[in-house]
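hey so i finaly got around to running the thing on SDR family oxidoreductase from Anaerosalibacter massiliensis. pasting the sequence first so u can double check i didnt mess up the copy paste, my clipboard has been acting weird all day
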Amino acid sequence: MRLKNKVAVVTGGGSGIGEGISIELAKEGAKVVVTDIDEKSAEEVAIKIKNNGGVAEYFKLDVTNSENIHLVTEKVKEIFGLIDIWVNSAGISIITPFFNHTEELWDLTMDINLKGQFLCCKEAIKQMLENGGGSIINMSSQSGKVGTNNYQAYCASKFGVIGLTQSLSKEFAQNGIRVNSICPGVVNTPMWEKQTADYGKKRNIEPDKVMDYFREKIPAKRLGTVEDIAKLVVYLASDDSSYITGQALNVNGGDFMS
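ok and heres what it spat out for the 3d tokens, dont ask me to read them lol
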């Protein structure tokens, strides 16, 4: 129970990696606030945590809306106390050729993946300064370290997350606030399931062969799991990583090293 009685907020916690992170934090004793633009999915994850003996609350959260973020963080403070851990897991990923990559898609991706993390960090850090410290974990991507075609806005946003992480870690380390990012490789989640057709088109692979393609090219010969990411989040949230800040940690089975 490395996180006993710690207050943790997870954005995008209603499904995929965010859901796994929420459940794993609760297993380690954290009081978990599951947030998601899809309120019903956030509620379902919170209920799952409670049914397994954990402590959880849920809220609808639009990470692009600063007023909504502020209101949610104030409610968290009222219910559980000051925030100790914040995980920015909300995000979108859309594969499309450059000339089909509209301005609207660019703006939407940047708003959710990068601006959303900036706005959430601002509210989280306010409480962490009051609390005497805390840990923020921002979700970047392997595509935040190496660019790939048909992925312009996503790559740019995830590169930006690493820059944001490094800047905040420098500014607030003296206040006991650690800020790190995680760079997953391919993790078989609902987000990826929605993209297999577009990725297959990009690589000239049948959609049902896309995951086999990834398994073959990854040195570990398997896809990442939600648990792989969630367990690293727990480590970065805990005092076990007290001297780690400003890092962008790869979780990709050896697919990319930098």
